[in-house]
Structures are given as C-alpha cells and as structure tokens.
Amino acid sequence: MAEEEKGEDVVSEFLRQNQHLAEWVESLRGHCETNKQWNARREFILRNMEAFPTIHPGQPSSSLDRMLSLSMVWANHVFLGCKYPQPVMEKVMEMAEGVVVHEIPVRKTRDEIMGKGKRSVASDGEADGSQKRLKAGGSDAENRGAGRAGGRTGAAGALKPGPPPQAATEHQPFFNRLYKTVAWKLVSAGGFGPNLDHFEILRACVEAAKASLSCTFVPLRDIPDLPASRTQREGQVCELRCLTVYMGTGYGRDEDAARAMASKEALKIFQGRKVTVRVCRRRFRGQDVEDLVLHDEQTRSSGLPPALSYPFQPEPSTSVS
Description:
The protein is built from 9 helices and 5 strands, in the order ααααααααβββαββ. By secondary structure, it is of the alpha+beta class.
C-alpha cells in the first residue's frame, strides 16, 4: 500500500508542476471510474505519453485514441477481470510496467456468487432448474453447467458466466445520454451520410460522455466463425465496444478502414427513436455466449457477427507490478 501511495504522490507532484497537463488528463476520466481505478489509469497514460510523440494535450488524434483504448483495456483487465486477445494483453501489460496496484479484486463466476451459501442437492437426473458452482480445477461432473443451459454439459456449458444480471439496466442511462449526444452531433454535421468521418464523430460523442471506445482488431483469416460461402480472407476486422457493450463490427483492407466501417455500423443504431442495451446470444471462438449488445428499434433479419472479444470471462487474481 505504501508503494502505491508513493506512486500516487509522484504523479500528483508531477501534475502540480504541469497544471495545463493536469486539466487535460482529468478530462479523460470516465464517468463511472472510481478514484482507485482512475488514479491507476491516469498513471498508465502519463507513463506512456513519451511512447506516443504525436499526442498533443487538447488535440484529438489517432495516437491519442489508441493510447486511451489501451489504457481502458488494461484497466478493464485489472479491475473488471476482462480478457482480450493475447497480443493485446502482452502489449498493455508491458505498457503498465511500473504502475503498482494493490488489492486487485478477485473475480468469481456468477454461479459462484448466486450459489454462495447454498447446497446443491440435484442429481444428474435433476439437472434442469439447478445451478452448480463452477470450480477451477474440478472434475468434469463438478464443472457441468445446469439450469439456464438446459442441461448442456462439458466445455460449452462452462465457458463463461456472461454479463452480470443487472448489467444491461445499469448501462442503459449512459447510452440514453450518448444517444442524445450523437443526435446533436449528426445534426451539426448535416445528418448521417457516407461522407462523414464516422469514427471521429463516434469517438467525440463517447468522450463527451466521459467514456472511451474499445477497438479490437483481428485479421479476417483468423476468425473461425465466418460463413463457409465467404471466400475473401484478407484484410482486418474491427469490433467496437463502449463500457463492455458491443456496438458494431466492420471489415476493411487495413485497421483504419475496418474501424471506419465499424463506426459507421455503430452510428446506424442511433438513427431510430431510441437505443437499448440487451443481453444477446453470439458466437465467440466457436461457442455460444451471452453478450451485451446495443440495439435500435428495428428487427434484424441476420444474426450478429461473431464476437472478436469477450469482456465477461472469469479471471483469476492478477498481480500487477
């Protein structure tokens, strides 16, 4: 704890000597971040400023977007237990070297939380309607999922618990505010159209709401759940999330093009009379999972694209040095 407080003192002293930087970095704080989370992410940002020389305080840039996204990935991993592709995890953990965080939360599965203090009395024949605690390192019988999974067993039933039960309701007020911000932004831009800088509009609106976009990039050829009829295998795919809620997916010849297309798809959701956060079934790494998804009022004939990231995986306690 003393080491963590020492790190905060160094950051505070640095910001006192650079007041213009202090005001700017404070504007990057998310509206739902606690003091502990923000102090750690703020130190992450300040420590990595030199690695992004094109970042100029107060001026939006792709470099700033990338660093903020990486800072959110790191903070989500440390404080919320989110998991991302291995290359991304290695990158942010390298960037976080020197940032000390104590008393990191220990993540439990939803079944562990719901089943705490309860004794499971269901036999194999009584699996429907029962819940069994997921135990890391347990036997196959101990790890079988029941209840909502409809009696399915094995790895598919024990993959992930999904979003917390109240997650959609808790995130809805934020996206109601974001909806209004996007609406006014599009009005000032002359309306939604193909010639807009869709990513810049979406990024500006999200940051105005004191949050950040999370971009996940995966080469098209590495996605296992593509339709067999799709012959194109080159290029990049981008998935956009905000506060762990999925907003859109886009394909392009490179990361910038894929991000622009994903942003365009995300902005389409804001064209209706309202947006709604829902829990939906999606494919992730060949298995069905529950995910938080932002919807408009229209009924979609096609299913959701496969997820490129999944921030609701249980994670053992993590040490950050």
